[in-house]
Each structure stands twice: as C-alpha cells, then as structure tokens.
Amino acid sequence: MEETRKDSRRESMFVEDTAVDWRGRPCKPNKHGGMTAAVFVLGLQAFEMMAIAAVGNNLITYVFNEMHFPLSKSANTVTNFIGTVFLLSLFGGFLSDSYLGSFWTMLIFGFVELSGFILLSVQAHVVQLQPVECNMMQVNRRCEEAKGYKASIFYGALYLVALGSGCLKPNIISHGADQLRNDTDLKQSKKLSTFFNCAYFAFCTGELVALTVLVWVQTHSGMDVGFGVSTVAMAMGLMCLISGSFIYRNQPPRGTIFTPIAQVFVAAIRKRKQICPSNAEMLHGSQKIMSTNSTSSTLIHTHKFRFLDKACIKIESGNKTSDESPWRLCTVSQVEQVKILLSVVPIFACTIIFNTILAQLQTFSVQQGTAMNTHLTKNFQIPPASLQSIPYMMLILIVPLYETAFVPMARKITGKDSGISPLQRVGTGLFIATFSMVSAALIENKRRNNAIKFNKTLSIFWIAPQFLIFGLSEMFTAVGLVEFFYKQSIKADGMQSFLTAMTYSSYSFGFYLSSLLVSLVNKITSSSSSSTTGWLSENDLNKDRLDLFYWLLAALSLINFFNYIFWSRWYSYNPISSLPTPPLHDLDPDPLHGLEEDPHKKGNFNSLIV
C-alpha cells in the first residue's frame, strides 16, 4: 500500500509525454525533438525578430516624416502598435493550446505577418499612397497628415504585422522548449535553462542586425527598400520553421483552456456558504490522480486562495455522496492550476513599468538622437534608431558568457540549475532598469541646456548609457520571466503557450501605459499655472521637458521594484496542506528544480507547487 502511494506520488510529479510528430503519431525520443529541432525554431526567432524590430524600432521616423503625424501622436502610434503585438500574444497562446497546436499557429500567422510586411513595402514605395512630401522639421510649416484611404492602408498593414507577430511570439518559445521536454529530471531543467538563454541570444542577434543593417538600409535606400528587406527576413524565418517539420515534437491541443478555469470559479461561488474541511484529504481528488484528461498531473494542495477550495467540497445527502456536475464539483488538481494562474498575476503586473521604460527607448530616445550630432565621421552618420543596437552588441558577448561562466559558478553556490532562480533574475533586472531612466534624465537635461544656452549639439553617443543599462536589465528580466512562466506551464498542463504569452502581454500593457502616461502628463502639465504647454506637447524637444518625464519614470521604476520584492516573497511562501507524504529522499528528483522556495522551511514541496 505504501509502495503504491509512493509510485502515485512520483507519477504526479511528471506530465505524461503525449507529443506527436507531423503525422500525429507518437514521437520517438531518438528521432524527434532535442536541441537539433529547437535550432530551427531559434532560426525563426532570429529572422522574425530581425523583420519586426527593423519596422518597430524605426517606425516613429516613418510615421513622423512620411505620414506627417505630430510627434506625440507618432510616439503613441508606435507604442500602440507594439502594445497590440504583445497583447495579441494571448490570443495566439489560446489558439495554440486549445485548437491549433503551436506549429500550425506559427505557420498560419507567420504568413499573416508576411502579408503585412508586403503591404507596408508597397505603400512606402508608391507615392500616391502617401501624403504630399513635406519637411516636418521646418519651423512654422504645417504638413498634410495622412488621412482617409492612405491612413487606412497604413494601419491595415501595420496591424496585419501586429496580428501575425503577436500570435507567433509565445509559440516560438513554447514550441522550442517543448522539443527538450523528452528529457527528465535535472537534465531537462538544465537544458531548458540553456534553451531560454539561446532564445534570448537569437533575439539579440535579430535585433542587432535589424538596428544596424536594416535601419541603415531604411535611412540610406528608403523605407520601401527597408520594409522589403524585412519581408525577405520574415520569409526566411518561415523557411526555417518549415524545414524542421519532420523532427518536431508537437504537443496536441487540449480543447478550450478556459472552461476548467471557469468551472472552478462557478463551483466555488455556488458553494460559498460551505465551510472548508480542516483535513485536506476530504477534498475531492486530493489523494488520487484525477483530472479532465489523462495527461494532467495532480498538484499538491496549497493554502493560498482558500476560497477556491470550496469547489472541491463534496455534498453528501444521507449516506451517499451526490453525483455533482463539473460546474459544481472540481478536483484539487484543477483548483491548484487556477491558483497557479492567480499567483503569477502579481509577478506579471510588476513587469509592466519595466516595459514602459522600454517604450521610451523606442520612441522618445530615438527622437532625442535626431536632435544630437549623428556624425561618426565627416561622411558617415549614425541613424538614431541604430543606437538601440549598442546594448545588443554588448549582449551578444554577455549572454554566452552568462551561460558558460556565471551559471555554472552560481549553480555551485545556490544549487539551482539556472544559477539564480527565475524570480531572482527578474528582480535583478527590475532594479537595474531604474538607472536607465536616471541616465536618460541627466543626459537629456545636459543636451537641452547645451542646445538652448550655448547653441551646441551633443554627440549622439551621450545617450548610449541609457540603452546599455537597459539592455543589461533586459537580459535578466526578459529571460527570467519567460523561464518562470514556462516552468509554471509545466504544472498547469495544457497551457504552455498561453502562460508564455502572459510574458509578452506584459510588454503590451507597458506600451499602452506609456501612451496613457504621455497623454496624462501632457494634460496635467499643460494645465498648470507655471507653463502654457505640456512636457511633451511640442514637436521640438528643446521646448519640451523630456528630462522631467524620464525622472518620473525613474521614480515609478524604483517604487515598482520594492513592490516586486513584496510580491515575489509572497509568491515564494506557499505553505502546503498537511497531507501525509513520503520523505523527500524517497522521491524522484524535482523536475522543476530551480524555482523559488521558502528558505525557512526545509523539506517542503514548495518548489514543486509554487
């Protein structure tokens, strides 16, 4: 009896492998998956990032100079576009987990994104589809803004790209990581950590090429040629994806992921007047593997969100337990999956300010560069958008060094497969990001004073530190967040793409918050008695107070860091129920080793269920 109990406990720690090949047949470990298959996915990651980064990072220049939108509207157009890309990642994750699977989702929406690039290229090339040529930087001159069918074509093309890219992004990460899930125990955890670092390296490579070669092409050969090169890059990414079709491990869709979640809330509300039993073993499904599909693993009961436990209370009539529908009675495993989703929301929310800072580096910092001396030599000028390539040059060197030197050293000290835990990595990045805005505020104040008082133009390299600092912080936060959410998805079975998409939707909310802050700051500062115009209401940065806006973001970032510390500690402390369990030394090694655990409670199962 005890041996059977131990076997069941071991089985509950792993998710049964249900991956299939391109024909729907069970995968063979020696033929499908592994790092070889993941490389094809990383190829798509690099080329797709190359294509969209070249458009997104220099889009404000195109919108301002070619579409003739005012500066604040141009900045909001860019942030809304990028925000929509990442918000649509939730839709892509939902489609993948519920109906299409990650491969078909990537293939379908990859071609949607490709069509958007083609349409952008056509509009940028055909003069009749653009407003009359006009110099927006010329003083006291009003240029005709793109309206009517011209604006419709622009927005249509832009949001085809957003739809395609948004639905691609979470599936690239989850599909690539799924290739390594046929390995078990510590080997799987180490390989996953390596894959996430490799994925970020591919991301940096794509960004670097986009911000140097492609932006240079846009500046010197025209936006139509630049958009055309992005189209070619996207086509090459799709070729990489298709090339690995025969060796992929594909996780089949599990049906709608929202129905089981809704069932938990409905059942808990219906039984809101019931009292939770003091003994967790009395809850439905607390001692056996039981879920809506045979591949889900049972999660250990925790004491967070106790209200939801009422969904597991059995209603007895007489001596018999009534047969209740799934909308009235749920299993502990089902409830614990919902608890996982609720627990990660505060962590997710703490990264929104971080991405609001990123939005400034892709909008106002680019415009900041246009007001500076861009000459490297007499005959060579640096496109302002290319300045964003500086941190990626650094990261191309640092990311491999982080993986090969820092992680093994930290692993010996902490015992964690990823060196430091994903939550610690995220927190480190959030702290560093604050100094990016401090640097930006100081340099903008210096640039503005030199321009107004001495009629001097600073070199564009003065704003390089803000990009370098943020690049370093992104290496910690972005990779840590993706790894954290994917490891949660292993426990919330069938939600790999959706939970990974939550990482990207944080970017969305960050960019939307940026648009809101710009409008709000303009409204508040323009109505104050000390000034007639807002901090960001002019097209001339010398008249604006961008430095004060940067200081505001630095303050918000620091407050956000302390907020993150509170929620990460809350997340890490996750007391479990008093279910009798075998000793730790009788169990198999933890497949999710490296996640946060409560250092004050030795021998608990926190790293398995948090």
TrEMBL record:
Residue ranges annotated as coiled coil are none
The cross-references to InterPro entries, in alphabetical order and at most eight, read: MFS_trans_sf (IPR036259), POT_fam (IPR000109)
Which keywords does this Swiss-Prot/TrEMBL entry list? Membrane, Transmembrane, Transmembrane helix
- Record-linked CDD domains: MFS_NPF4 (cd17414)
- Basic and acidic residues compositional bias: what residue ranges? 590-601
Region annotation (Disordered) ranges: 590-610
Bilayer topology: Multi-pass membrane protein
- Name of the protein: Protein NRT1/PTR FAMILY 4.4
Q: What organism does the record attribute this protein to?
A: Forsythia ovata
